[in-house]
Amino acid sequence: MHKLLKLARLVRRPLYLKALIKGAAAAIEHEHVLEGLECNLIVDVGANKGQFAIAARKCLPEANIISFEPLQAPADTFEKVLGHDELVTLHRTAIGLLEEEATMHVSKREDSSSLLPISDAQISHFPGTEEKETLTVRVSPLHNVLSLKDFRYPALLKVDVQGFEMSVLKGAEKLLNAFQYVYVECSFVELYIGQALAHEIIDYLGSHRFIIQGVYNTQFDEHGKAIQADFLFGRT
Question: pTM here?
Fold first, then answer.
């Protein structure tokens, strides 16, 4: 039922329908967050096929979007959907702590792929997300790809990287002060082996003067226990 309702919303909007025809369903669950922000730059880490970027383009039509996606297939779809947009740039690399090559654990559902091994808990909570293969991808700290001259303010850093959030944030540390907002998916249970959990992300961003402004899209298990959610942080 949820998927049918989402599909009905997608086909009613020309921008979303065009993207859907090309292979990417806009992440409309983030609209209510994006519509409440004033942003001129969105740095989109973990872009996949461009689902978040499409929603961002609808909600913030004048913003520059700089996206990062290391996997070839979803990056190709991203280019197909958004490559014509002069305000959108795609870098085919992952963001992390070091400049290196690393192993990507590719899930049967590509948007669940991670630079961390997929845990049994992830597969249990989200069936069909088990590993299908591993690939070597390029990883870079954010400051090796972007500099302050690339920024338009206010700026939002969005992070959706399946458990690799802390490495992304630490790799972006030299630029964190340039962001007004950080929007990051956090987990309350270990879905990817070795990941930082929500309280660790909150503490880390708190040490950089970011406070929680909202919690969205919480997912629960069959017992009503929270599994993960999207956290919006704002600079104090």
Answer: 0.94
